[in-house]
Design brief:
The structure is a single chain. This protein is of the alpha/beta class. The chain has 4 domains: 227 residues, Aldolase class I (TIM Barrel), CATH 3.20.20; 133 residues, no CATH class; 85 residues, Beta Barrel (Thrombin, subunit H); 96 residues, no CATH class. Helices cover 22% and strands 26% of the residues. It is built from 13 helices and 29 strands. Strands 1-2-3-4-5-6-7-11 form an 8-stranded parallel β-barrel, surrounded by 5 helices. Strands 9-8-27-28-29-26 form a 6-stranded antiparallel β-sheet, with no helix packed on it. A 6-stranded antiparallel β-barrel has the order 14-15-18-17-16-19. Helix 3 links the parallel strand 3 and strand 4. Helix 1 runs parallel beside helix 2 and helix 10 crosses helix 11. The longest helix is centred in the last third of the chain and has 22 residues. The radius of gyration is 28 Å and the shape is globular. The two termini are 48 Å apart.
Amino acid sequence: MNKEKKDETNSCSPLGVRGYSVELLSPAKNLECGLAAINHGADAVYIGASHFGARSAAGNSVEDIAVLVEYAHKFRVKVLVAVNTILTDEQLPAAEKLIWEIYNAGVDVLIVQDMGILKLNLPPIALHASTQTDNRTVEKVKFLQDVGFSRVVLARELTLKQISEISSQTDVELEAFVHGALCVSYSGQCYMSQANCGRSSNRGQCAQYCRLPYHLLDADDNILVKNKHLLSLKDLNLSCSLEEMMDAGVTSFKIEGRLKDADYVKNITAYYRQKLDAIIDKSTCYQRASAGRTTILFEPNPEKSFRRGATDYFLHDRKPDIVQMDTPKSMGEAIGKVKEIGDYYFTMSSAEKLNNGDGLCFINKQGDLTGFRVNRVEIPSHRGEGQGVRCFPADMPRMDTGVFLYRNQDQAFEKIMKGKTAERRVGVEILFKEIPTGFAIQLTDEEGISTTFEATCEKQPAQKPEAVNDNIKNQLSKLGNTIYEATDIQIEISSPWFFPASQLSEWRRQSVEKLDEVRNQAYIRISKHEAKPATFPIKQLTYLGNVTNKLSEAFYLEHGVEEVKPGFEVKAEEGVPLMFTKHCIKSTMGWCPKEGYKATFKEPLYLKNNDQMYKLTFDCKACEMQISKA
């Protein structure tokens, strides 16, 4: 995909020709999820290899990746493999071997965090800079572009203005997250898990200390906030900002979720496929990055899948409601309030249809998430205004009237997701024509790739000439067991000849096989970008550089860094910040001094969970917060 800048008149390209490709990038925990992503409209899929991925619980064999690649390339879908952890010297040879195996399996792209990988003997595979490389500035993105990366995955914290500034000053493809879980720390800059239990987030083993409940204390040990999930962010949802992001220069829209199941992948991929198609179909500026059209056979709804609420994070600047303090778990979709409570039932007001077996939840008086299952639902036959739905739980929960309920398990939706939910087809035009020795079938796909199958046979007049053309079209259009669909069928014959249905069916099969073969041969993987001389924008690299092997150290020294300190996983420095975040607890609580708040508490502030204490440091000039061990 080439990122083409639009001119000031907003004319993307001359004469209405389509502009740059827009990619929907979906996650794959495993082969099943990868296939589901493709069928539901993904233009690219990212998946973890057997080792060295930033989700250590989502590894996949090279054999499974090869199967995914074969299927993906039929639709011109790219397969990106994450080898995006930092490595030890001892792991580098195994990483090099794995990368060659991945390349030989046909993979399109390698996602990388450790710069030591760039000094290995690599195949000519395209490289993407993982978001773990902390890509927030023009200077950093420009450097990564110059050393050979064809794409940079941007930090989630960037605003539209910052994305646009990076895009306008670089030529590299820009990838941005649009949906899913958010790390509260800048990616690659969190060491809390490593410091507390030796599980490095930079090695795919994060213990998620950000999802724990904390007391917020002042310097006098006064509890300002009690037992809340002060670092647990809501989930990202930028589905209403896709066109703005395209205009800012984003070419790949990434769904988070390499630990999510296939139903999540189906639902969220389909949702964004429809959103992007609506933009692409009305514009000459953009085009899809893969082949085939996806028909969605259900109504996608992100509220039906795992979600911790929704936020647009910092895309449109800072907002106070980016944290879900009550629980780090999925609450699902808002349903309605409890109106009446009986001995074995309750009545609630809800515009949503409830089902027997649905899972509901609420926040109890203690501030904890409580869930229960509904055995039976009674809906009045003539439900008037003010009448509610009567629910009979399996076990009656302790709750009061006025409590707001959420549905985190929708039985009817889950049943739909277990069936056929999408169909993806590549359009082909079919020309059936007569030749001197018999007949030929020419297939031309939507990319313009064309093949001709010729059948030598005797020509016999048809007994029912009026039915010949309909018979030909009927048999040639039966492409249901292939990836194709006929968008047009033309017939050029001199006379109404007789064609047995079985013969047309066999010719169709052989024609499709020939087109498959030619299309497979025509697929071209993008190559690695050539590196250019480049100087790293920082002269002294601290533990934040995540350098854990000699090749990585040599890489930075070769690119102008004068001092390289070892990464935190190699040497855990005392007293250094363990987390760097744009999320600010003061701002969330309405205590921002830049907004005129006069503090009634004594700083510094602390987070406490059992015997663990963390000191908060606020950089108000940069609007950032740091967390260190107290």
